[in-house]
Specification:
With 184 residues, this protein is α/β, with parallel strands linked by helices. The protein is built from seven helices and seven strands, in the order H-H-H-E-H-E-E-H-H-E-E-E-E-H. The protein folds into two domains: 1-42, no CATH class; 45-183, no CATH class. Strands 3-2-1-6-7 form a five-stranded mixed beta sheet. InterPro entries: Harbinger_derived_prot.
Length: 184
């Protein structure tokens, strides 16, 4: 059900289980997943995590980088008919969007799932809670120096569609020099 997005009753004959049993199994699976992986993965970075993320990023030539941000569109096969227009994505199929931030070790420490497919990355970003701490002054103090200039807030790597914010660094669309190619 998680992979296909199909309803429980569509698996009745295939699994030889009733809808209620299938839903109970799914609920227990998700509870177990959150219980086992939640404390480690389903949370914001703490001070130790932040130090590790920054250390790894700096070793790779990106001082101050907190992670990479991007959105992914997932086709929603069993989207209710009444919601089709709201969730219609690029391919004219109902889709949901997953916004995620991943660290250099592929730990996804922020995700925002379920935005309607007609949105693009910028609109999803504006609905996201990712920068709430920054706006309220509760963001961690990340200090680093590049070319003699000191900065005091971390940043994310994003693709070209993201806005020109100090907290999002984008690649160079058409890199020309070797330095630009290496950065991109």
């Amino acid at each position: 059900m998680l992979i296909t997005g199909k309803s429980a009753d569509s698996f009745d004959a295939e699994l030889r289980m009733g809808e209620t049993t299938i839903l109970r199994a799914l609920r227990e699976f998700t509870r177990a997943t959150v219980h086992i992986f939640g404390p480690r993965y389903i949370r914001k970075p703490n001070a130790q995590d932040l130090a590790r993320l920054l250390e790894t990023a700096e070793a790779r030539g990106f001082p101050g980088m907190l992670g990479s941000i991007d959105c992914m569109h997932w086709v929603w096969e069993n989207c209710p008919i009444g919601w089709h227009s709201q969730y219609r994505g690029h391919g004219h199929e109902p889709t949901m969007i997953l916004e995620a931030v991943a660290g250099p070790d592929r730990w996804i420490w922020h995700c925002n799932f379920g935005a309607p497919g007609l949105l693009n990355d910028i609109n999803v970003l504006h609905r996201s809670s990712l920068f709430d701490d920054l706006l309220t002054g509760n963001a961690p103090n990340v200090e680093y120096t590049i070319n003699g200039k000191t900065y005091n807030m971390g940043y994310y790597l994003g693709d070209g569609i993201y806005p020109n914010w100090a907290t999002i660094i984008k690649g160079i669309p058409i890199p020309i020099s070797d330095k630009q190619k290496l950065f991109t």
